């Protein structure tokens, strides 16, 4: 499977972000990508306005997603995150949306909200309440995660035990002391812990670190961006996956039961 990661700084202008996403989809298609992963929260971003997630939120049949659907009719599967209004509620959901063949084919509401390092995502966002099903893309089974989910090994392990070969994580990883080290550590660890490929596309710009990355099933970075806008490509192979799992059979050697979602969410 050929994957592409589109790293960019999200604008406060929705139309600008639509244009950026369209361009990245077309570039990924031109290079023969099977999957394009974009960052978290790509509708709109304004550092000076923490309420932007509420103001910019759109339903899945809103103009943002509708503008991108035609681009996927003959292009790659596209994964990105947007904020979606919760009916009859003052909050929104942080939803990973999967676009394929001109339609929304899957969605995952972020389970773990970023209430850490003096940030409180839960002030505006409702957490999800279910583990997402796997998708099949180019012969690989793909599990869905979002940003802060990477810090919780239970979800990655659950998806791997469900059969995932690849974990995908659109992200908006905030800058801060040691945060780049944390990013490098958790992306590599989640891949190595579960002998899966990890594909994490991160936002760049003044707020986030960038450093989008693909990690192979033995924890080796395949490709990684720097801090600026980028479109990366990587080849994921069944041979590398099989080699990793034969030499490091952690999923077979484990002694703990399959993680289940807590009722706390």
UniProtKB/TrEMBL annotation:
One Pfam family in the UniProt entry: CN_hydrolase
Protein's UniProt name: Deaminated glutathione amidase
Taxonomy, superkingdom: Bacteria
Classification via PANTHER family: DEAMINATED GLUTATHIONE AMIDASE (PTHR23088:SF27), NITRILASE-RELATED (PTHR23088)
Family according to the record: Belongs to the carbon-nitrogen hydrolase superfamily. NIT1/NIT2 family.
Upper lineage: Bacteria, Pseudomonadati, Pseudomonadota, Betaproteobacteria, Burkholderiales
Segments forming domain CN hydrolase: 1-238
CDD domains reported in the protein's UniProt record: nitrilase_3
Organism: Corticimicrobacter populi
Entry-linked PROSITE patterns: CN_HYDROLASE, UPF0012
């Amino acid at each position: 499977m050929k994957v592409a990661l589109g790293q960019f700084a999200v604008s406060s202008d929705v139309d600008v972000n639509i244009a950026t996403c369209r361009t990245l989809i077309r570039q990924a298609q031109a290079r023969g990508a099977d999957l394009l992963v974009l960052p978290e929260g790509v509708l709109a971003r304004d550092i000076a306005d923490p309420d932007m997630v509420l103001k910019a939120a759109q339903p899945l049949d809103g103009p943002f997603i509708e503008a991108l659907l035609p681009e996927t009719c003959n292009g790659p599967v596209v994964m990105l995150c947007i904020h979606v209004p919760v009916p009859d509620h003052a909050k929104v959901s942080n939803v990973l949306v999967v676009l394929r063949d001109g339609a929304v084919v899957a969605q995952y509401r972020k389970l773990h909200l970023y209430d850490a390092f003096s940030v409180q995502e839960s002030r505006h966002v409702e957490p999800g309440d279910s583990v997402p099903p796997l998708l099949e893309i180019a012969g690989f089974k793909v599990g869905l995660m979002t940003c802060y989910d990477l810090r919780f090994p239970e979800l990655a392990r659950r998806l791997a035990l469900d059969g995932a070969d690849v974990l995908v994580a659109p992200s908006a990883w905030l800058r801060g002391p040691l945060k780049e080290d944390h990013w490098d550590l958790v992306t590599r660890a989640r891949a190595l812990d579960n002998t899966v490929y990890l594909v994490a596309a991160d936002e760049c710009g003044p707020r986030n670190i960038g450093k989008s990355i693909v990690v192979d099933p033995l924890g080796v970075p395949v490709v990684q961006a720097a801090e600026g806008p980028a479109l990366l490509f990587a080849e994921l192979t069944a041979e590398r996956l099989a080699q990793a799992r034969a030499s490091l059979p952690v999923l077979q050697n484990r002694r703990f039961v399959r993680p289940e979602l807590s009722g706390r969410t």
